[in-house]
Design brief:
Number of helices: 4
Strand content: under 5%
Largest sheet: none
Low-confidence stretches: none
Radius of gyration: 20 Å
Shape: elongated
Order of helices and strands: HHHH
Length: about 120
């Protein structure tokens, strides 16, 4: 990626007779869920909300600093749904229009508690 960006900058500068200084800052790595942790979370979530309440989110290109944790220890990033788009809840958490459905918070807490209980049993 770094080389592609620099080549683009270089090409534009050459085309317009400009010069440039290039300093590429690396950010966070990609978030990659651990299969073991993801399976454990899924099983616990199903106990709380049922099979129909749990689904996989498609891969996406959003930026997320959660990878700083999973670079150190395997983990699992998950999304907690809440509310319907027709009621203004159709925006993701980094959107300025994001709105929290307070009714989803006890559900998320229950999933975490169930996961802790399940992990303590193993």
């Amino acid at each position: 990626m770094r080389d592609m960006v620099e080549q683009t900058v270089k090409g534009i500068c050459e085309a317009y007779g400009a010069t440039y200084d290039f300093d590429f800052m690396y950010g966070y790595s990609s978030v990659v869920n651990s299969t073991v942790e993801m399976d454990a979370l899924r099983q616990s979530a199903v106990k709380v909300v049922g099979e129909k309440g749990v689904f996989e989110v498609p891969d996406m290109m959003g930026g997320e600093d959660f990878s700083a944790y999973t670079d150190v220890k395997p983990g699992c990033f998950f999304a907690l749904g809440g509310g319907e788009a027709k009621d203004g809840y159709g925006h993701i958490n980094h959107s300025p229009e994001f709105k929290v459905d307070d009714n989803s918070l006890p559900v998320g807490t229950a999933v975490f508690v169930q996961l802790i209980k399940d992990l303590m049993i193993d």
